[in-house]
Design brief:
Helix 8 links the parallel strand 4 (about 175) and strand 5. By secondary structure, the chain is of the alpha/beta class. Helix content is about 50%, strand content about 10%. The protein is elongated, with a radius of gyration of 19 Å. The protein has 2 domains: about 5-15 and about 100-235, Rossmann fold (3-Layer(aba) Sandwich); about 15-100. About 35% of the residues are buried. Helix 2 (about 40-55) crosses helix 3 (about 60-75).
Length: about 240
């Protein structure tokens, strides 16, 4: 084996944002049927969810709280009455995050198959352990990784300790992920080589990381399997 690759999971190997997008679309549709403009409900929800992510991080229950908080605000402003039916539907939409497991990103399996032949593979993912492991099993990706770590947040030490576990230097370690803030910058700080996968959803993008600046050099790809051409130069 030559070196180590540390992968991210959500929106790098599996299409998690699509699951969240579907849940939010159902929530928005509930209120557009009640006469609200889609843009208004979307903006209200995103504003509240941005605040909640600072408090709750990537808890899978955060979306349900953001939906309930948005509904409560509409009620408090006198825009809509409280309704048991609405509450039940919001509960159902929020729970979709836990039950609708994401599908693999196109090209992810091909990248893992190739990478496993040339590198040791580790996974560091944010979230709750039970749900993250369910996602891996659903995608049939678990067997590719020698080490799987679920954390509440990532930083430089998270990556360094993983490389240390493999007895591989930072300079021989790659980080592949979709977040400048939580994958690329911590990897750069750790002295690792980083590949930024520019995840794109057809209708949705997280607003919490807009404007995040990289702190050093890194590679960038539009399709996840394009990492093979970068990694292949070191094989």
């Amino acid at each position: 084996m030559k070196g180590l690759i540390i992968f991210d999971l959500d929106d790098t190997l599996v299409d998690t944002s699509h699951v969240y997008w579907l849940a939010k679309e159902n929530f928005i549709a509930l209120f557009t049927k009640a006469g609200f403009k889609k843009e208004y409900i979307d903006d209200l929800f995103e504003s509240i969810d941005t605040d909640n992510i600072r408090q709750l991080g990537h808890s899978p229950l955060r979306y349900l709280k953001s939906m309930n908080d948005a509904y409560d605000q509409l009620i408090s402003e006198g825009r809509i009455p409280d309704s048991k039916t609405n509450r039940e539907r919001i509960e159902m939409y929020g729970r979709q995050i836990l039950t609708n497991l994401p599908e693999p990103i196109e090209g992810a399996r091909e990248l893992l198959e190739w990478s496993g032949q040339h590198f040791s593979l580790a996974l560091i993912t944010r979230g709750t352990e039970e749900l993250q492991l369910q996602k891996l099993r659903h995608a049939d990706f678990t067997h590719y990784f020698e080490k799987i770590t679920v954390v509440s947040h990532k930083n430089e030490d998270t990556f360094k300790s993983t490389a240390l576990d493999f007895r591989i230097t930072a300079g021989e370690t790659w980080v592949i992920g979709d977040s400048i803030k939580t994958d690329i910058n911590p990897g750069i700080k750790a002295g690792m080589k980083c590949i930024f996968y520019q995840y794109r959803h057809h209708s949705y993008q997280w607003i919490q990381e807009y404007g995040e600046k990289p702190i050093g050099e890194y590679f960038e790809i539009q399709k996840i399997k394009d990492a093979i051409s970068i990694l292949g130069k070191e094989v």
